[in-house]
Design brief:
The chain has 268 residues and is of the alpha+beta class. It is 30% helix and 12% strand. The strands form 4 sheets. Strands 7-6-9-10 form a 4-stranded antiparallel β-sheet, with no helix packed on it. A two-stranded antiparallel ribbon has the order 1-2.
Length: 268
């Protein structure tokens, strides 16, 4: 995606320049993926949301869309930060940056992101989890740019559920499993949200077993909170949920679901 955009090869027929393979499917917004990476609602809690995969293999492409969407957010944050002084519209500058003829610190934000991506590769362990890759991005920024972009990187990761408290077990070296999302950042002012579920058709009586998800899905994904007292307070690892969660600045979609009550989609 980055190469095609830096060299001005897309769009060619009105397609979303941040989709992949639109020419192969005819879908100009999503291409060969579930979402264009600039239009994705996915976050860390959605790992495993798409079950359609070859027997014995994990749904790597669908899960990979979570990572590409997060990276696009980082890219866009750096574009917003740097492109006023380093115009991305200058095709000659973009080409020089893409070919390494200009130092990354003299390039537009999209090329600074690409440099951080490659630098992070060198810092990741073999078969990294997404959380290890997150840490490599943060470290790469410290090494390459003296930490100038920690604010933007942390905010992008936190908004996608890769916050400071995110965790996962890894049954296989190359995957994150049983993700526990976290949407808080260690360097931003987080909002603390307490969730309460009530049945509007039953006099607003409280529902004690509702689960709250961040995003557009509630099947095969991990909740951020619940209203079940038996999972509150002291608990065991990723299964320990309560009715409180923290969120970095931003706008979030939610799905609240409880047996016998269906699902609702509030926004915050």
């Amino acid at each position: 995606m980055e190469v095609l955009n830096e060299y001005g090869f897309v769009p060619v027929a009105g397609e979303n320049p941040y989709s992949v393979g639109s020419y192969a499917t005819g879908n100009k917004q999503r291409g060969i993926r579930n979402y264009g990476m600039n239009q994705s609602p996915l976050n860390f809690s959605d790992l495993g949301y798409d079950p359609f995969f070859t027997a014995g293999e994990s749904p790597v492409h669908a899960d990979g869309e979570i990572w590409s969407a997060t990276n696009f957010d980082i890219r866009q944050a750096l574009v917003n930060k740097y492109n006023a002084t380093n115009p991305a519209s200058d095709a000659a500058v973009q080409r020089k940056c893409a070919e390494g003829l200009k130092a990354p610190e003299d390039c537009p934000g999209n090329r600074r992101w690409a440099q951080l991506m490659y630098d992070a590769y060198l810092l990741m362990p073999a078969a990294p989890t997404m959380l290890q890759a997150r840490d490599a991005f943060l470290a790469a920024d410290m090494i390459r740019f003296g930490g100038a972009n920690q604010n933007e990187i942390w905010l992008a990761f936190a908004r996608r559920g890769f916050g400071q408290g995110a965790a996962a077990t890894s049954a296989h070296a190359s995957s994150d499993t049983d993700p526990k999302p976290d949407f808080s950042s260690p360097i931003h002012s987080n909002a603390t949200v307490t969730f309460k579920a009530v049945a509007s058709d039953e006099g607003n009586s409280e529902i004690a077993n509702a689960r709250i998800f961040v995003g557009q899905y509630e099947a095969r994904v991990s909740p951020i909170a619940d209203t079940n007292p038996s999972t509150n307070a002291e608990g065991d690892g990723a299964n320990n949920l309560d009715d409180v969660a923290q969120f970095a600045p931003g706008t979030y979609e939610f799905v609240a679901q409880a047996p016998g009550h269906g699902a609702v989609r509030p926004a915050l």
